[in-house]
Amino acid sequence: MKNKILIAVVPLVICLAASTAFGQADQTGTVSVSLTVADVFTLALSKSSENFTGTGIYPGESVNNEGNPIVCNVKSNYGAVWYLKIKDDHALANATDTIPQASFLHQSTGGAGTHADAAYTAFTGTNAAGTIATFYTSTTAEGTNSTTGTSINSNLKVNVPTTQKRGTYTCTVTYTLSATGP
Question: How far, in Å, CA of 69 to CA of 109, rounded?
Answer without folding.
Answer: 10
